[in-house]
Design goal:
Elements: H1 3-10, E1 18-21, H2 26-33, E2 39-41, H3 48-58, E3 64-69, H4 70-73, H5 78-86, E4 91-97, E5 100-101, E6 107-108, H6 117-123, E7 129-132, H7 135-147, E8 152-157, H8 175-190
Parallel strand pairs: 1-2, 1-3, 3-4, 4-8, 7-8
Antiparallel strand pairs: 5-6
Helix pairs in contact: 1-2, 1-7
């Protein structure tokens, strides 16, 4: 099962959902399939699921889709305990598990051997946790997850590899631009202020000395 094939099935199901996207080849895949400020791209391992959890608490009326990787989740396993205790009903977590650190040379992660992330999630109290191994199974599970009013945790067992795109079709914005685009989208869609507008100065601007004031 390839990641891009799963994302192709997922994206047409999305409307107003917010997507929190992890690093690696999936960035260009998400951008190609869903070029939207409703996506926020996090290029920091170990922060993706916690960030998505925070959004789900802050915006309980919005569905949050988290698209993380096995290598990233393994850096912060404690978040499973938080999810199991808090169980945000509007959060869908997908762990894209290709059993490798693909961007740094395909070195194996712990899931290559005995580690079962879905079983660990269940042990942490996440009842709706599953491992999926085929595209049809993923399509069925994600459809259900998007309609349920409860936390869902899906581990997608994937082949390594990323879809290639011509340079002009790749995402060009960097993380700073992505942050501001995402925040402005939230401000507009939620009718809130996150980053206040620049304040106008109320102090009278004093002019400096002129050349005529300078004595040589």
């Amino acid at each position: 099962m390839k990641r891009f094939d799963c994302l192709e099935k997922l994206v047409p199901m999305l409307s107003e959902e917010i997507a929190v996207v992890s690093l690696g080849g999936q960035i260009d895949e998400w951008y190609h399939l869903r070029p939207s400020h409703k996506n926020i791209y996090l290029k920091a391992m170990g922060t993706v699921v916690p960030f998505a959890f925070g959004l789900s608490i802050a915006l309980p009326h919005r569905k949050i889709i988290c698209s993380d990787t096995d290598g990233s989740l393994l850096l912060d396993m404690g978040i499973l305990a938080t999810l199991g205790n808090e169980r945000p009903k509007n959060l869908v977590v997908m762990i894209l598990d290709n059993e490798t650190y693909e961007t740094i040379g395909l070195h194996p992660t712990h899931t290559k051997k005995n580690v079962d992330l879905a079983s660990m999630a269940k042990g942490a109290g996440i009842e709706n946790a599953f491992t999926v191994r085929t595209v049809p199974e993923f399509e069925e599970r994600i459809k259900t997850a998007l309609t349920l009013d409860e936390l869902s945790f899906l581990v997608l067992k994937l082949e390594p590899g990323s879809q290639s795109f011509p340079e002009e079709e790749r995402k060009r914005t960097d993380g700073i631009e992505d942050k501001y685009n995402f925040v402005r989208y939230l401000e507009e869609s939620e009718k809130i202020t996150i980053f206040p507008r620049e304040q106008k100065s109320i102090r009278r601007i004093e002019s400096g000395p002129s050349w005529n004031d300078i004595k040589l």
